[in-house]
Every structure is written in structure tokens, then in C-alpha cells.
Design brief:
The model is unreliable at 1-11 (pLDDT under 50). The chain is built from 14 helices and 9 strands. A hairpin with a 2-residue loop joins β4 and β5. By secondary structure, the chain is an alpha/beta fold. The strands form 2 sheets. A 5-stranded parallel β-sheet has the order 7-2-1-8-9, sandwiched between helices. Strands 4-5-3-6 form a 4-stranded antiparallel β-sheet.
């Protein structure tokens, strides 16, 4: 069901799919998918695997329910896989896939490297572990707008318990750590010329050493997963490379405490002779679509987060398959 092209085909341009991470959720985010049988089947599979109704949460859950780390990650994963399966059911194929943090699991399912049921079970452990770490150690995150990443790195190096967590786009970097550390770094960023310091509505210091307990539990869960060779390429946005299947468990466990280098990843993916010629955000929202447009304005990029956007994406991909 998770159709993807051969490696030979993947080396020749084609579609880049990007899968969103935590923060893309919204009430009713799966309602438009109920028109597609393959999407309903995906939510049913998730419910059978996890023992609770993921579809109900994604269709009718409140924002408070959807922002629980131990639930939202599973909701976003399932929505993203459902969207990809709708596309794949209409013969869409991807050349390469990447994800933002949690989105890497959706990308791995789409490329055929990881079974959906395995991804659900692992992300369940991941979300619970992150929630536990957040409750035990606290922490927060903030976006620094309008400051070069090198300056933000220097600020974090001078203040205890704060790190760069996400390189989202030129001029947009997210920091993460203790409440005191993030506050101090934000104040310093303001004096250095940042246009805005935006606290994020999170309860933990994600992508930092504060997640060490979650990383240990995640490593144990990943040890039982068999990763396949896949039929399309997967690019790690924390390690800036294409990991081999045998490395993926270690890459994903390290990811929790490593910064997401989305800006650098897009520059690498889109800068070579074999670069994809178009991009599609697969899942709820359009956060990554906006980030890519700030990094590479010349890449045709679209989202799939509502009914109209998904129909346009289906039509656009069908057009690419028409004989010329």
C-alpha cells in the first residue's frame, strides 16, 4: 500500500515528501480524510494496534487532548500515513522522504523502511517517554526570529541548560532547555537584535539532554523493529544523510536529544544534480511548506492538510504521470 519508486527512479528528480512533527495538530484535522476508504482503513489499523480510537481523537478531539505529547504524536503519525496512502492509492510515488522530528516516522513508513504498526508502537513509547521526561524535568522552548543561527549558538554556549533544538529556516531557530535557561537566552537574543522571541506552548525541553530517559526507553523499543531496505530514499534531518536500514534504530534514538537541522537538510537535498523537482507536505497543517519556501523559493511546494489541498495534490501528481 505504501507505494514508492525503485532506487534507480529515485535518483532522477521526482517528488520530495515532507512529514510534519508535533505542533501541526488541530481539532478536526482528519475529518476531510473520511471521504477516502484507504484513510479510514489506516485509522482503523491504528486503533487496532493501539487499543484506542485514534480516528475519534483526530476528528473530534479538543485541542487540549491533541496537545498531550503521548497522544498528539500518534495522531499526527496516523494522519500523515493516511494522507500518504490516499496519494499512493492514486499511484503517487516519491523519490525521497524526510520529516521534522516525529515526522521522520511517517517518512519511514511512506518509503517502506518501517511498517506502520511498528511505527505506532514505537511512537507510543516515544510520546510516553517524552511526556514523563517533561513532567519530571520540566523545561520549555522558544523560537528566535530574525537572528543568524551562529549568534544563537553562541548565546546558548554561554548559558547553562539551553541548546539549539531546531534550525527551521534562515532567521528562525528554536532553542530548548530549562525555563531559566531559555528565558535568559531569549533576553540575550533580544539584545543581540532578534526581531522576536516567541515562547512555544510545550511542556518539555525536546531535542536536548533533558530527554535522555525517553531516549533510553525508545532505544529498547527500536531494538525490536526490523527495518526494510525501502523502495525510496529516507533523509535524516538530524544527521544530514541517508542512513542505511541497519543504522535507523540508532539514528532515531539519537534524534530525541539532537537538533533538527531542517534548513541544512533542505539545502543539501535540493542542491544536488539529482535533487527532487517538487515537494509535498504530507500530513496536517502547512508549517513545513512555509519553511521550505523561505529556504528554496524556486521549489514547487504544496500541502495536503485540508480537502482542497489534497485534491489539488492528487490532480498535480496525476498530471506528472500523463504521457508527454
Amino acid at each position: 500500500m505504501d507505494a514508492t519508486p525503485s532506487m534507480k527512479e529515485a535518483d532522477m528528480g521526482g517528488l520530495l515528501i515532507l512529514c510534519p512533527g508535533q505542533g501541526s495538530q488541530a481539532p478536526g484535522m482528519a475529518e476531510y480524510l473520511w471521504d477516502h476508504p484507504v484513510a479510514r482503513e489506516t485509522f482503523a489499523e491504528a486503533g487496532d494496534t493501539l487499543g484506542w480510537d485514534v480516528g475519534e481523537l483526530c476528528r473530534h478531539g479538543s485541542m487540549e487532548e491533541l496537545t498531550r505529547t503521548d497522544r498528539t504524536q500518534l495522531a499526527i503519525l496516523t494522519c500523515s500515513v493516511a494522507v500518504w496512502r490516499v496519494l499512493a492509492d492514486r499511484e503517487a510515488t516519491c523519490a525521497v522522504a524526510a520529516g521534522h522530528s516525529l515526522g521522520e516516522y511517517s517518512a519511514l513508513v511512506a518509503t517502506g523502511h518501517m511498517a506502520f504498526a511498528d511505527a505506532l508502537r514505537v511512537v507510543d513509547v516515544r510520546g510516553r517517554g517524552m511526556q514523563t521526561c517533561a513532567e519530571r524535568r520540566g523545561g520549555t522552548m522558544a523560537a528566535i526570529i530574525g537572528l543568524e543561527s551562529g549568534i544563537v549558538e553562541e548565546i546558548c554556549a554561554c548559558i547553562p541548560e539551553v541548546w539549539v533544538a531546531n534550525y527551521n529556516s534562515p532567521g528562525q531557530v528554536v532553542i530548548s532547555g530549562s525555563i531559566e535557561g531559555v528565558r535568559a537566552a531569549g533576553e540575550r537574543a533580544g539584545t543581540e537584535g532578534a526581531r522576536r522571541v516567541l515562547p512555544l506552548p510545550v511542556s518539555g525541553a525536546f531535542h536536548t539532554p533533558f530527554m535522555d530517559g525517553a531516549a533510553e526507553a525508545l532505544a529498547e523499543a527500536l531494538a525490536g523493529v526490523r527495518f526494510a531496505a525501502g523502495r525510496a530514499r529516507f533523509f535524516s534531518t538530524t544527521e544530514l544523510r541517508y542512513p542505511e536500514p541497519g543504522e535507523l534504530a540508532h539514528v532515531l534514538s539519537r534524534q530525541l536529544m539532537s537538533p533538527v537541522r531542517f534548513t541544512q537538510s533542505m539545502e543539501m537535498l535540493l542542491g544536488g544534480a539529482d535533487a527532487p523537482d517538487r515537494g509535498l507536505e504530507v500530513g496536517p497543517g502547512e508549517v513545513l511548506t512555509g519553511l521550505v519556501k523561505r529556504i528554496r523559493r524556486d521549489l514547487p511546494m504544496a500541502a495536503t492538510g485540508d480537502a482542497d489541498a489534497l485534491q489539488k495534490a492528487l490532480a498535480a501528481e496525476a498530471e506528472t504521470r500523463r504521457p508527454r
